[in-house]
Every structure is written in structure tokens, then in C-alpha cells.
Amino acid sequence: MNPYRRHPFIRVATVLVYLFLYTPIVVLVLYAFNASRTNILFEGFIPSFGPLQTSGSLVTQSPCGPFHWFCELSRNREVGAAARNTLTIAFISTLTSTVIGTMAALALQRYNFRMKPFSQIFLYIPIVIPEIVMGIGILTLFSQLFGVLNSALGLAGDSRLSLGLGTVIVSHIAFSVPFVTLVVQARLQGFDKSYEEAAMDLGANELVTFWRVTFPMILPGVLSGALLAFTLSLDDFVITFFTTGPGATTLPIYVYGLLRRIITPQVNALSTIWIAIVLTAVILLQRLQNREA
Amino acid sequence: MRSEFAVELRDVVKQFVTPEGNLLNAVDHVTMQIKNGEFFSMLGSSGCGKTTSLRMIAGFEWPTAGEVYIEGKPMGHTPPFQRKVNTVFQNYALFQHMTVYQNVAFGLEMEGADKSEIEKRVKRALEMVQLTGMERRKPRQLSGGQQQRVAVARALVKLPDVLLLDEPLGALDLKLRKEMQLELKALQKEVGITFIYVTHDQEEALTMSDRIAVMSKGKVMQMGTPVEIYERPANKFVADFIGESNFLDGKIKSISADEASVFVPALNAELSGVPMSKDLVNGEEVVISIRPEKIRIVEYDDGKEGIFRAKIINSIYIGSDTHVYLDCNGVRLKVMEQNRISRLDPFSFYHKDQQVGVYLMPENTLVLKKEA
Known about the structure:
The complex is a heterodimer. Chain A is mostly helical. Chain A has helices at residues 8-31, 68-74, 77-110, 116-128, 131-153, 165-188, 193-201, 206-235, 238-243, 251-261, 265-292, and strands at 48-49, 53-55, 58-62. In chain A, strands 1-3-2 form a three-stranded mixed β-sheet, with no helix packed on it. The longest helix of chain A has 34 residues, at 77-110. The radius of gyration of chain A is 24 Å and the shape is globular. In chain B, 23% of the residues lie in helices and 37% in strands. In chain B, helix 2 crosses helix 3 (115-128) and helix 2 packs parallel to helix 4. Chain B is globular, with a radius of gyration of 25 Å. A six-stranded mixed β-sheet of chain B has the order 6-7-8-3-9-10, with helices on both faces. A five-stranded antiparallel β-sheet of chain B has the order 13-12-11-14-20. A five-stranded antiparallel β-sheet of chain B has the order 15-19-16-17-18, with no helix packed on it. Classes of the chains: A mainly alpha, B alpha+beta. Chain A binds chain B through residues 192, 194-195, 197-205, 208, 212-213, 216-217, and chain B through 58-60, 79-81, 85-87, 89-91, 93-97, 106-107, 110-111, 154-155, 158.
């Protein structure tokens, strides 16, 4: 008898786990198409296309039909600004943290130095400490630093240094670097230095060796590190909450703000789009890892 | 003008720090002169310093002391990409993201050769290693032997002064390895480039090399042609490491030009006319080395010069040869006999405790310094 025969319970457990994980998401997406403005109960889809018609709290007809809330969302200036901020922050912090993280991973793999074990441990700490601690820490740092700088440089009014897009980007870079470093480092485990030696042996200097040999070979690792940094930045609420300022509202912060007022199906529409983007990123990441394996 | 020596190591030392924090001379005052056009091997077990020596010639490591000369020029801290030597790596180190063509063309691109020139030379190099038609494959789509050939082509296409090979056949199976040994040797004759070959396989070194440096613990134990190294090992280490040897203790009774008479207590006899190295003196305690294939088993005939009484301990049939272990006055001797006659029961001739005679020809033995 095969000792690894699948017990029927395994199937049941699997289904339960997936139900538990995905029911909230399915409900969330479903409510993005809710005809009800208050979004407390699901009152069915908006049935027809045409000029906007409402009856009580129900939308009965919309130019966009069931996609009414997505259309409303696209006309929402605040959402547009928040999305722009979020993407700006994500792109800049991903690019920067990927460069720094890759360099760190290469250095940790290549050189032996006295502080190496400490460098390695200190990389893990930002990953394991609660985000709220990081957030408060960064906020304290910025406010102290800006206080000193503002008075030292005699800045006043609008020219004063304050929390905003810049501080959010810096903090996102800070929490992304360890993740990128660890992902790239894992990929470097199998990278033999003889490839680089071979390139130099054939006449390539250090720079050419890096761009023609090292970088193409570690690229899948670098890309998965970058995608991880990107999704982390898109998602981040806690640290952003502490470091953001006027004009630097990101999508998670905006949604949180909306929830405190009313729960409109716009929030669900926004979340649906968001899930779609993150899902695409995750699938891409998976593909990359499979191709490399 | 070309220097007489393609590569020269002068009193080279390479020191490493062990994980325990001790200093270790991986290469310990090594001096070697490798002539132009020579097939030179560095032979030794792992940790003997052969690969480190090769890496210092390539420029991947710098000597702690001493100097490496290539074509008469001191290399100092010249980086690998400015040395006219190329390396075939043990794991081949083929660029996985490039095709065979791109791999071989890489070195020429770095020289700034133009496209048609590159095309021509890559084609020639691939012809030379019989890989025509494989240009567009990726390394992982090739067999081990083919990858090895790409590695050779990639290095040779640069027409280096010296080709360095670091155990290039180590990953191949025995049969393919033997084929590649002959192929590499033929290739070296054809291109006339100096090859420096690192291996731990003595048969490989003997098969391919013009000269061999036998290394141990960072030092060169002997340098010479395959015949010199096998027939006239300079010391007990080489005699033991290359092939096999029986060792008997003895004492020098008298010395002439390059021969000695040695008294061997185990045999209770004096062997005269035994070849010896120069640094031995009269009365010195020495070791006599005898190769197993140079001892003959005969019928014991009392009183006949050079024949000693012995008893068979064990006889092992290994196909081409039979290995016979004998007890000669308490000394264990190994004898190798070729199975030149086809017979179904190779053990029929010898049986345990059989009394035989062993014939030791003095000219087939060698006197070596006794080592502490």
C-alpha cells in the first residue's frame, strides 16, 4: 500500500483554507458592483446602461452600467492624485532599493570583512521588528532632523523642510533594502566566482565583466527583489501613515480616510483594481522564478 | 624577441589565512621555468598548491612574495585581463546566458576585433574542437564533453602565449577523459601554444606532458620528463606518489660515480650497482625503492645471485595484471605480473604459502635518501 495515499481530509482542508483566504476578496470585488450607494447589503448589480437614475439609495441606471463605481472613481481627483503618489513612491523606492540591495548582496557574497556577521543580522532586524516601531522611529528621526535643520538654516514658511513625498520615499527605500538584499543574496548562493574570473581572463575589465556577465546572470534574482520591493511599497500603510504629509496621500492612506467617512462602493472598486495590479505582479514574479529554476 | 621561457615562477610564495586564523603557505618558495611550446603539468593531490600556482599565473591571485614572469616580463599586480594567458576552468565557467558562438566570440570582442574577423576566428576555433554546427546552442544544451570543448575553444581563440588548464577533464567519465587527453595533446602540438596543465591524475600527467612538476604541501618535489619522474624519482615521496613502490631499508657500503652498493638487512645481502642520486654519502642509512612490475617471481634456487626466498601471501587477479603480495624475510613486497597468457584460472600458478624466489635486478632498483 502506498503510504502517501491521499486522505480525503486533505482535500477538505485545502478547500477550507482557500475559502478562508479568498471569500473576503470575492465579497470585496462583488460589492464593487453593488447597486446600493450605502454598500451595507448587496442589492444586486446595476441593471442597465443609460443616463444616471437613482431611486432612494439604489442606482438603477448608469452610463457605465454595472461598472458605475469604477467610472465614478475615475472622475475622482483625489484618487487620481493618490494613485499618482503611490506609483511615484513605488517606482523611485523600488529602483533605489534594488540598486542598493543588489550592491549589498554582492558585497556580502564576495568579501569577508570583520563586521560581516553583524551586517547580516542587522539586515534581518528591520524585517522582523513591528512596522509601527519602524514608523515611529522614522517619524521621530525626521521631525528631530528637520527641527535642527530648519532652525540651523533659518528656513521658514513654505521653504521649511517637512514631511511629504520625499520622506515617504526615503522610508520606503529603508524598509525595502533588506528584502531586496535577502532575495538577491539567495540567488547569489549558486553564483560561482569563476564566471567573473573567466570574463576577466578573456580580457574584460571589472566594469565590462559586471555588465556583460555578472548582471545578466543575476538578473532574475534582481528582478524578483525589485518586484517584491514594488509590491511592498504599493501596500504599505503603517510606515507611510507616520511619514506622509500634506499632498503626499497614498492609496492606502486615502482608503483609510474614506472608510472613516462613508463606505462607498468606490472603495471596493479601487481595491479591485489594486488587487488586479498586485496579482499581476505576483504572477510575473512566479514566472521569473520558475524560468530560473 | 621572445623570451626562452613562456612562464617563470621565481621563489613564489602564496600565504593564506586558514579559517582557524593560522598562516599557511599554500605555495612555498616555488621556482619553475616553463619553456615555450611545452606541455607542462603540475601534478599533486588536493591542497598541494598546484591550482594556486596556476591562478597566480592567470592573475586571479597575487604572490605574497616572489615574482611571476610571463614571456620574460614580471607580472606584479597585472590584472588577468592584461595578461596574454587564458584559462580553461575546472567547471568550464561557460556563460550560461550566451550561446556557444557568443561564448567563444566574447574574448575577441574584448580585443575590439571587427565582426568579420570575429566570425572567421570563431568558426576556425569551433572547427578545431569539432563543434561546427553548435554555434546557436546554449551551454546547458551540450554534453559535458562538448562544454569542455567550448571552454577550450573560448580560451584558444584568443591565441594566448600560454593556455592554463585547471583539471579540465575532471568532470568527464573515464572513457571520454582518455579520448580528450589525446585530443588535447594533439591540439597542443597543432597550435604550438604552451600548455600548463593542472591535474591530480598521474596517468593523465604522464600521458600528456613533456615535463611534469610533482608538488606536495606547496613545494615542488621533482620536475622532469615523465620517464625521469617514473624511472628516477628524486625522493621517496615521488617514488611513492607516482606509480607504486616497494621500499626496503638499507645502508650504503660503497659509492662510485652514480651507483652504490647497499646492504639490505631484510635480505641479508648486498646489492651492488644500484642507481642513486648525488646527495648521498658513504655509510648513510637509505631506502631502496623497487617498482612492483620490475620484480620477477622465479623458482627459488639457493645461492643464485640476486634471487631471494619468499612466500606468497596473496594473489589478486585484476584483468590485465595479477598483483602478488609476498613475504620476503618479514618484508612485504608487491609484485605486478602481466597476464600475457590467456588462462581461465589465474590463481593456479600461485597459492598461499607457496615458496618462491624473487629476482631483484640492481639496475631496476633505486637508492633514495631516507626521510625523517
